[in-house]
Amino acid sequence: MEVQYLVLLLSLIWHGTDAIMWSLAPNTHKCLKEELHANVLVAGEYDVTEIQGQRVDYIIKDSKGHILSQKDTVTKGKFSFVTENYDMFEVCFISKVPSERRGIPHQVSLDIKIGIEAKTYEGIGEAAKLKPMEVELKRLEDLSEAIVQDFTLMRKREEEMRDTNESTNNRVLFFSIFSMACLLGLATWQVLYLRRFFKAKKLIE
């Protein structure tokens, strides 16, 4: 099966882009990948053109291969899940066409919302009997928490990258010193060896 990857930043969808649409060639699969931190709500809605004698499956999994959601022969539907750990997640749509058929590309539409965009604040407001202003304040509060979490994650990544950089610099320094010591030792051995050789040949005193 031919593999095609559509690597996109799902965070762009979070900031208000429209649904993604693409043509899925027969017997191929395309995936959307994104890194997400823990306890993030992800909700998606898909629409796949229906073609007689062909099918499209979808599967959502993390980098360890754990399946979060899966369904065969999809046409239109929704999915949602909450991340447990910081990881790389991917949503894949797989085209399957019998070998004796000449396949026709499917048109796939996918709308994914992450974090607070995936929450239905209208339903939350109705359940908690909140006024519209209170619902908006709740949304802004969740948005502020999400921004703080993003900054915390960015700071943690920066610290990890700095530690890695310092560790790499130290290793390069030690390796350079070791290499210089080896070269000096080799040069000294060569000089002594050549001196003994020329003395043995009585070319030098």
Features:
205 residues; alpha+beta; Jelly Rolls; five-stranded mixed β-sheet; four-stranded antiparallel β-sheet; 3 helices; disordered N terminus
User: Got a strand count?
Assistant: 9
Major sheet attributes: 5 strands, mixed
Unreliable stretches (pLDDT < 50, length at least 5) are 1-17
What value does the Rg take, in angstroms? 30 Å
Please, what is the average pLDDT?
A: 83
Number of helices: 3
Q: What class do helices, strands and sheet pairing give?
A: alpha+beta
Order of helices and strands: EHEEEEEEEEHH
CATH class wording of the domain at 2-118: Mainly Beta
Could you give the order of strands across the largest sheet?
1-3-8-5-6
Distance between the termini: 76 Å
CATH architecture of the domain at 2-118: Sandwich
Task: Report strand %.
Answer: 25-35%
Helix content: 40-55%
What general form does the structure show?
elongated
